[in-house]
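FAQ

Q: What does a record look like?
A: Structure on top, sequence underneath. For example:
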């Protein structure tokens, strides 16, 4: 069989648990459910974290460069070969539409064609400032205009147009659609705006009116989307709107996949669905993703296509940027030696059922981390998770048994029975900090 095509779909703010087939949350996602039935779902996919309150920027930077967090500055460095850039250089047609948020220069290096492109971080979903593809790579500010329609529909239409044009093409393609949904403002179009009754929304077991201590993000934009303390009815309305965005997005993804099939492209196309990070929306008293709880660091990851098992679930721990070498290998493109991502093809092929022994995560508001600024670090093994929060020079540690307490509600850090586990995880955390060039490593 010829080299596979890639259809890469990435959402903004879609947490790992908000897919109906998983049976965790009430969001209705029939298209993603079907993808899970036809492909492989990874239940322990993570991002490494962020060096910015705009978590999407370093997350997408890691994905595109295959590098760990502290080696992924903004903008992406010119000497880092990017995933679509390598595919383009090795015979792939590359196309993108939607949100980029990693500067126009890196976009120009990656894509030979494109639809409507949004170089910002967030906007009114009905008034997204976009630019048309510019073969010169200049992307002048005066060429920016407001797209006509709801963001997800606008970008889906662009991808559908590209796929329609591929029916008669022999060249393999990498097609990338980056949605601004379900990021706020959460204003889904009808009928999705009233699809979920807030009164019927069940709050998660880790809902809290406020976080139990200061993690240094109380006054950032995301956390000001709801009042303090978080009222139950207010949070239910936020979740209803969040689910409405997800269900509308799911429908639009269905349109894209139907076009892929109608053009005879499904058999040789690897589909990837994922997100750049998760979101709190009331869990632990938090609204945003600037924290290291699973609701913010874990992401959905579904893959379907040739050589990928159908109806499979894999709970191996992995990072989003592990997709960088994975897709390059599938395309028979050499993986750069400097790549920090680790291919998950052995998981897809069933020759292994484990991947990374531990997951290191980090959050800080500024790249380079000026002294005294708040930060968070965590380490997660096969069962436990240890989180360090540093605010105004004061350390706060938390320990969770994720097997017994997947919602991270029972802090065991002061339990005498867990003292040895805490010491062991602290040692592993320090080792991982040094390995990934953490600026606050000791």
């Amino acid at each position: 069989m010829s080299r596979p095509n890639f259809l890469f779909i990435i959402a903004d703010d879609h947490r790992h648990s908000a897919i109906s087939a998983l049976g965790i949350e009430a969001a209705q996602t029939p298209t993603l459910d079907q993808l899970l039935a036809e492909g492989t779902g990874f239940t322990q996919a993570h991002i490494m974290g962020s060096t910015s309150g705009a978590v999407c920027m370093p997350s997408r930077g890691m994905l595109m460069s295959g590098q760990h967090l502290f080696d992924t500055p903004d903008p992406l460095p010119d000497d880092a070969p990017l995933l679509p850039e390598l595919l383009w250089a090795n015979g792939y047609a590359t196309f993108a539409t939607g949100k980029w948020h990693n500067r126009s220069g890196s976009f120009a290096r990656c894509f030979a064609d494109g639809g409507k492109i949004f170089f910002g971080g967030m906007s009114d979903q009905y008034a997204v400032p976009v630019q048309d593809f510019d073969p010169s790579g200049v992307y002048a500010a005066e060429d920016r205009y407001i797209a006509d329609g709801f963001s997800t529909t606008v970008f889906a239409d662009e991808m559908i147009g590209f796929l329609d044009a591929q029916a008669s093409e022999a060249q393999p393609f990498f097609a990338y659609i980056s949605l601004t949904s379900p990021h706020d403002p959460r204003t889904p179009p009808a009928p999705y705006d009233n699809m979920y009754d807030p009164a019927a929304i069940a709050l998660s077991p880790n809902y809290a009116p406020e976080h139990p201590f200061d993690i240094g993000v109380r006054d950032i934009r995301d956390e000001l989307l709801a009042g303090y303390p978080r009222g139950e009815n207010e949070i239910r309305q936020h979740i209803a709107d969040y689910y409405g965005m997800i269900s509308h997005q799911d429908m639009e993804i269905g349109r894209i996949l139907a076009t892929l099939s109608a053009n005879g492209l499904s058999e040789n196309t690897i589909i990837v669905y994922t997100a750049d990070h998760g979101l709190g929306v009331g869990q632990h008293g938090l609204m945003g993703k600037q924290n290291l709880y699973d609701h913010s660091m874990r992401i959905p990851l579904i893959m379907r296509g040739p050589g990928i098992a159908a109806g499979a679930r894999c709970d191996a721990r992995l990072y989003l940027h592990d997709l960088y070498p994975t897709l390059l290998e599938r395309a028979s493109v050499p993986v750069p030696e400097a790549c920090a991502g680790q291919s998950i093809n052995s998981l897809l092929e069933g020759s292994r059922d484990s991947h990374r022994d531990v997951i290191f995560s980090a959050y800080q508001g500024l790249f380079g981390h000026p002294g005294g600024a708040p930060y968070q670090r965590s380490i997660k093994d096969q069962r436990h998770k240890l989180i360090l929060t540093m605010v105004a020079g004061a350390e706060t540690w938390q320990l969770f048994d994720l097997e017994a307490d997947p919602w991270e509600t029972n802090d065991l850090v002061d339990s005498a029975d867990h003292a040895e586990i805490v010491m062991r995880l602290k040692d592993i955390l320090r080792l991982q900090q040094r390995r990934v060039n953490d600026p606050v490593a000791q």
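Q: Is there anything notable about this one?
A: The longest helix spans residues 232-262.
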